[in-house]
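tool_log.txt
---
The assistant was asked to compare two proteins side by side. It first ran the structure predictor on the initial sequence, then on the second. Raw inputs and outputs are pasted verbatim so the downstream comparison step can read them without reformatting.
(1)
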Amino acid sequence: MSATATPAPHPAATAHPAPAPRVLPWLLRLHRPGLAVWTGLVAVLALALLALWGPLGDAAADGWRQYRACVGDGPCGYDQDAIVRYRDVYTYTTFAVNALPFLVAAWAGAALVGRELESGTAHLAWTTGLSPTRWLAAKIAAPAALVTAGTGLLVVLHRLAWSANRHRIDTSKSWYDSPTLHANGPTTVALALAGLAAGVLAGLLWRRTLPALVTALGFTLVLRFAADLVMPYLWPPVTRVTGLDTGYVTAGVAVDSGLVTADGAHLADPGCGPSFVKDCTEVYARLDATGFFTEYHPESHYWPLQLTTTALLLAVAAAAGAVSFRLLRRRTA
């Protein structure tokens, strides 16, 4: 009788942790609708700005040349439609470029972080080998690169279009017009990054979509308003004195204005009006005023104002990002 051979026991299967997902493809799949909307928006605005830089600007400039050539009181033919078309497209594109930081903030608060924490998608990612810190780093780094590239491209194109037509089209906006000033410079890019950081922080704070969206949007609005307020004081202004019959200097970013007395003192403007008005003449004589002073920033201060404000906005973005990481580590410790 032969003994039955007992099969040798198989070694126990070694359990291996699930591999961590590849971050970039995972982000692209998860936020494909947002990426498509952003790409389409940047493409449409870029085409509109290229048209302003090229054919729309040329047609409007020809229309203004025809208008200036008109003499007398008779009928005058000029391409009014081209002038109006350029103005409308410029207005809409400038508004859209200025609105980008607020769209980024709302999306970051609602879709990028708030919705994932509310639905549990973020926690699911953390259980597949993606640490919370790496998850947040990917959530900030990849969108920040896309936001910087897209917004930066539009700012460059906007400045090219505005510069090409500022001396050819009579209704071109001045360099210190607030929407034009921001759309022409890096403050828009910095505000978009600050809005992204604000949205991430709001999403981590609320962990819900709608409150995070509202908070991020409100913070970005306040930040834009604060940037407009402090920008004139981030660089030393120029002071110019004019006569009482001349009025104030208006070709720049205003800082302060008022009256200059005979001994050189600066007084607040009483708000009387032109010096040729009899009552105003008496007021100025009583105050011993000899002229008006204006503290303002000329066009040569454009880049100092832009760069100092940009640095301030980037500092706010960095601070919001640092707080976000600290908050996440505390909640997932």
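(2)
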Amino acid sequence: MDLDGVELREVNPINMADAIVSIALQRLADVIQKQIQEEVNLVRGVKKEVLYLSSELDAIRNVLEDAERRRYKEKSIQDWLKKLEDISCDVYDVLDEWNSAILKLHLPRMIKVWPFTPCSCLCFKKVAMRRDVAMKIKGLKERLDIIVKEKDRYDFIVNHPVAPQETTRVQSTSSIDLSEIQGREADKHVLVSKLMRGVSSRQEHGPHVISIVGTGGIGKTTLAQFIYHDDCVVNCFELKIWVCVSDVYNEVKIVKAILESVTRISQDLNELEALLKCLKDSISGQKFLLVLDDVWIEDYTRWEPLKNSLTCGAPGSKILVTTRSERVARMMGAVEIHRLGQLSNIECWELMKRVAFYGRSNGDYEELQEIGREIANKCKGLPLAAKVLGSLLRFKDTKEEWESVLDSEYGNWRKQKSRSFLICF
């Protein structure tokens, strides 16, 4: 499953509440990390509320397996889970608003373009925006207080939480089942052409950086895996290296991963300088493709040492980067930025159907397909959403159960443009 950095843990496929809560938690971590990186204190006075939301949602996650088992036997628990799903979506929406506001703080340079914009007006809007986000976060905290108190009344069985060292993002690899990819042939063709450009030239100074940019769940990692196994790419590059970077940019760990991929030997060195010298020796004169998946860092001074060490590769070497941020792509010096679009509704259905009907004959479930297409239309073009919904539907065999997914629990998709939990992906 292409998680694009989103941690869904090893959840029961029918435990949709767990998936929604997990994504809200990931969004909390992402925005807080971005606030730290940008050195922006957008919302003053709500740090405690944000940490509370994170810790309480994380604690609630440990009772969801038992809650799901009792969901359809006890109406009160079903209602409680719906409240939890609603607030998790609201957390995502508010944090998305927070993230957008942080991005807007980088726009004061627009004042130079439009000098007639009154500075006092911009400051007023900024203060109002901060106050609005702060009030929403505090309101979420109050709502979650009620949910936590209700949780304690149900005497749920608590699962043992994952140890802290295991709660990092899911690490991507280059492995993929190519038969499961939907709707990315055109994107692959464009990017393979860009990777092939200049590979036979002895004059090209490199390596050139090419970046795939898109929102979480859009399929950046899957597309990179698709390209990684393309015949032209396999035959062109002497070395192919895949490294999952993720949100914590650890230079030593990244260089070690590259070296181990090239030499097949585990590295005992821990000094960056010594590792970079080994890296130069290992790739010198060889044409390589390095995939850096899920890059978040925007600090050029931390990227520069690795970038400089990679220049000793043969002309035509390339670096393929996947990231959610165009700022990251530009910081890394990308000569090409490929903005990944959404899948069509038909492509979402094909992907969702493959997961939902796995091991079963499509003909045996003909009556479910029309409902399934309606559900697929709610995926908003996100392959991750299609996969998660397909996993949910795999355990539902009747028309009534599929209609309950469309109309009962998630019927408000049709009424609310931004409140759908699928936006969380």
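---
observation on (2): Confidence is low (pLDDT under 50) at residues 1-14, 107-117, 162-168, 408-425. The chain has two domains: 1-171, 184-339.
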